[in-house]
Amino acid sequence: MTLLRGRDVFSGEAVELVVERDKIVEIRPLAASAASLPWIGPGLIDLQVNGHAEGDANAAQPDASQIAAMSRSLSARGVTRFLPTIITASESDIISRIRAVVDACADPAIARSVAGIHIEGPSLSEQDGPRGVHPLAHIRPPRIDELQRWLDAASGLLRVVTLSPHHDGAVEATRFLVANGVQVSIGHTHADEEQIRAVVDAGATLSTHLGNGAHGVLPRHPNYIWSQLAEPRLRAGVIADGHHLPDSTLATMLAAKRDHGIFLVSDAVATPAALRHGGESTVGGGVELASDGALRHVATGYLAGSVQTLDVGVATVARITDSLATAYALATHAPAAALGLPALWQPGARADVVQFEWAPGDTEIHPVRVLIAGEPATV
After folding, report:
1. Is 188 annotated as a binding residue?
2. pLDDT tens per residue across span 83-121
3. N or C: which end of the chain has fewer CB within 10 A?
4. Active site members
5. Which domains can be identified in the chain, with CATH numbers?
6. What are 32-47's pLDDT values in tens digits?
7. Neighbouring-strand partners of residue 295
8. Is 199 annotated as a binding residue?
9. Alpha helices in 114-207, H assignment, sequence order
């Protein structure tokens, strides 16, 4: 049995958490001053992680060690479950990267933190702006035979596919994926409202980093951002790293989607030492890490993923909304609901727990203890 004490991130009250094996047994009130305790809450859940630190889901030579490295470094940031996200590439490269995740999950410690695989592309917009830094040479319409080969390689781990509804075959692909237990997310698109509605009718349920992967200049209305904001059947992922969305835009999206689904993602990428000093990223190619922490493609200036993780996202939204509880829910309960995971933070739930320090004005939360399915992670 493990006992953890803290200030409940949702209620603000002092609580004692009772953990047995991999489950939360009880969350009980504690007769102590909450102000003297660290914050405590469920583990963060990130549905879009291209890589982190030395680990890379898009490595040129993919292997299980890349995913294991992501798991270790993300857990130190309070992320207890994540979707390694594989971006646009040749089919053979995508398959190799899928297999690396599957191989990594042969280790139970890694399988506890990998909630599945997210494939972002290759059926995205071919237009500059919406395409972002995805390689144009590998943009292609969806094909059912290729999707089936992904499913075969993924051994049940494929959970989300991001595509653009403008492609011929997008509706058919959406139906196929949904029938095979995969959620379809709209992203990197220039689709019109009718095309968006068609894939939603076919079963699409998510929007990928809404507000990014877009043209620099859009029609006032309608446009594909408004269409997705207004669609109650779409839950939207948003990047709250201080670079991808201005505060006012993020606040508006949070308000627009609060009744029908919004959650935080990091869109984090691998940042090995060679990249931090200027180099080639597996997401975008030649990039530069600016002094303000933004990672940008050298030639176009487009953002090439993020170097920040959900610990920053939580603090960013807490500042914008003046509510740590709201921000924390958007990085835990909301992504869990979007992915269809069991309920968190109640007796019987998996013991994914983070104790952390945070005060108003902090730019990130600071984990001091992390449990993943009841097992301690290195912080």
Report:
1. yes
2. 999 999 999 999 999 999 999 999 999 999 999 999 999
3. N
4. 267
5. 43-342 (3.20.20.140)
6. 888 899 999 999 999 9
7. 289
8. no
9. 144-154, 170-179, 193-201
